[in-house]
Please model this.
Amino acid sequence: MPLLSIAIWLPIVSGALLLAFGRDDRADAVRWAALVAATASFLVTIPLVTGFDLGTAAMQFGEKHAWIARFNVYYTLGVDGISVWFVLLTAFTTPIVVISAWKVIEERVNQYMAAFLILSGLLVGVFCALDGLLFYVFFEATLIPMYLIIGVWGGPRRVYAAFKFFLYTLAGSLLMLVALIYLYYKSGGSFDILVWHRLPLSLQAQVAIFFAFFFAFAVKVPMWPVHTWLPDAHVEAPTGGSVVLAAIMLKLGAYGFLRFSLPITPDASHRWTWFMVALSLIAIVYIGLVALVQHDMKKLVAYSSVAHMGFVTLGFFMFNELTTSGAIVQMISHGFVSAAMFLCIGVLYDRVHSREIAAYGGVVNTMPKFATFAVLFAMANCGLPGTAGFVGEWMVILGTVKVNFWIAAAAATTLIWGAGYTLWMVKRVYFGAVANAEVAALPDLDRREFTMLAIVAVAVLAMGVYPKPFTDVMHTSVVELLRHSSVSKIAP
Amino acid sequence: MNWQAVFPIVPEITLLVMACVVALTDLWIPGKDRIVTYCLAQASLTVVAATQLWYFSGGATYYAMQRMVVADPMGHLLGLFATIAMMATLVYARPYAAKREMLRGELFTLSMFSLLGILVMVAANNFLVVYLGLELMSLSLYALVAMRRDDTGATEAAMKYFVLGALASGFLLYGLSMMYGATGSLEMNEVFKAIATGRINRAVLVFGTVFVVAGLAFKLGAVPFHMWVPDVYQGAPTSMTLLVGGAPKLAAFAITIRLLVEGMSGLALDWQQMLVLLSLASMALGNLAAIAQSNLKRMLAYSTIAQIGFMLLGFVPTVVSGNTVSAGNGYSSAMFYVITDVLTTLGTFGMIMLLSRAGHEAERIEDFAGLARRSPWFAGVMAVFMFSLAGIPPTVGFYAKLAVLQSLVTTNLPGFIALAVAAVVLSLLGAFYYVRVVKVMYFDEPADLHPVGGARDVRILLSFNGAAVLLLGILPGGLMQLCAQAIVQMFAT
Model:
């Protein structure tokens, strides 16, 4: 069965059907249809992990069909131990997003749900594509639904944020397009990513390609100093938009480094390691400090995302198995944790309509169930052992110590900054005396919100307590990636 | 009569005869039954399109009229699309023109004559035939733009179009006369052979080339010969704007390839440099000026200038040291670009006409505000057009840009790669104003609360048009293959 194709097209087709037939006067039917479609799309991805062959680093569940004969472009899909997790993460996030929007979105419900379903299919496509052009098409196409999600359902400055998001990302990825075409030429007319992995390239060409990819992926990750679109986009996006942005879209950039930069331009990657490490450390330390001074909860979590993603890029460019696996684990755990943080902010925002930390205080007194979840996710965000946030950070730091103590020491300060900004926020929002009449009147979680947060909480805890399945599945692929990227590709 | 001599030009003859029949029939038809004329015109165009398709599927090349015209697959493909574009234009234009008292017999007759001019240009194998077709098309279009005599804007647009168009024709004719003087022939293949001998005074040839390129640039609307484009696009009634901005682009592409490639590819190094400058200037000015526009038609005019600039890049990778691969790549990508651009242009102007009512022109960008609330379906269709013009996948505009960029990058010359990077950066500017239209439609509150009405045939065709832009974006392979095949066969003869 073409599982990957189903995982891509099931949500896209159901989204298109919702667009065509959904109407606001039967919004409930639209919601249920969206939930069913999203859940079904998640269920079809489960066999990808259960049927995954741990013994090989080759691509699995492959599909290949001719697509554009003139450019020798194929519709090629496949997953390895790395990308399979992102397929699952994407499919897992969509039902959560649908649930989170159940009551909040009352206008143009079908368009909202359809946008997320289509976006989810496109994101799965990005992670499965093994053809450079197919990858690019999915990668760029994700801009359209996200642009509309931010712009239509966003906050007061949504237009500015949507434009900034769109143009920033487009600017980065257009240079990548030139690099893809150049690789097509160099490989004698092939868009196959696996062919590109084996393609010998001069150092000069590698550096040029490396930077073309760098701009595309660094904007998406986002790395300092091209991260400025992210706080705007997060703050203005509706809750679901923030969740997908943080949980999945940021991973596109990091995934791009793994799939393109490291294997295609290994020599350039090694040569420019200092540059990537420097940017990652700036993200970890400087952006961590920036997060500390935010008044807006969403902005704070947005900056904390940038800092966490700094760990991911740091892990990639240390080139050892522990850091690379750690970085990938960090990507997955950040997918759960940041999604959860934004869901929590969404729960509060739906009630009080403010994201300002100062508007809250003592929420634990009126919403004890909610506060339990919120504090759990906050702990995961600052990397408490036993939660998902701990595993990745710990692996990256441990691996980095072996390479360079001082880099590891600088990176490890994140435990201080992370705890600082997260716990301080928790203290101001949840603990203390009830701050005002609005907080005093807060109703606790309803069944829908409880289910939604509980699902994520289970994932966060499970991954924190027993991360072995994750590392097992990715092990062979990571080893192969490192082996591949340690061999020079400079043509004799 | 010698059947062999006429056989290749059956579509043109059919069109000529039918245009006369339509003109005559209309004399006896009262205004309220103009639908008869319309149906007759559409039926004739369908026949013409069908014959073009039949010739194209035959795939053979014929010469006719003492080698004055050539009927080759490239010509048939372009002619086919030009005919289809004209049919779509008439569908979009009919209700719009009816509400503005422009639905007269002349609209159909002149449109058919302008299409005849296009078909003649597309099939020209002789400098004078090119000129003949060009003038036939242009004169019909001047008259069409001026059809609303009591409207000062339209009259002014027609005047500008006429004066500048005449100047351009003069340039072109002057350049062609230079070529004739230097080579002693008007026929493309003979000129090509004469230039290839290398015994001809180069100064005269290059001098002639400059004028030919300037004349073509006028017709294409490339900077610095673009001045007429914004004024005509904005001033003309929208149906006439579409007549000017739709099918004639295919003709402009056809004569560019006939004159520069078939006739003067020996001078490629000279015109290549000119095209690079024209194209960079067009992309820069078109994209920058479009950002500042509040009138959608004017914005689309500047966007057309930028699109033409991008298309011209496809002509840049020319035959290098006898190798036609990169050239074939480039020309077929330019052809794909221009066909898809016409497809998208049809849709955008069709949309403007759909939203226009009697006494209200929906030509400001604000007129599209909140369209997503008034009609989610047509807002979606318009968004597809805008994303396609911006070159965002999965719409066909992306593959058009990709094809042109690919033809530049695969030459592996640093200069061409730099050109590709410049084109990419400039098209990023373009993304801003196209996406702004989407913003207006989706993020703003509607200012105009009228429900979107419009004739049923317009609504259906617009939906198909949008679907075509999207479907060709998902499966662009077929059309690309057709373009490549047409260009390969052109080189082969």
Remarks:
- Chain B has a mean pLDDT of 87.
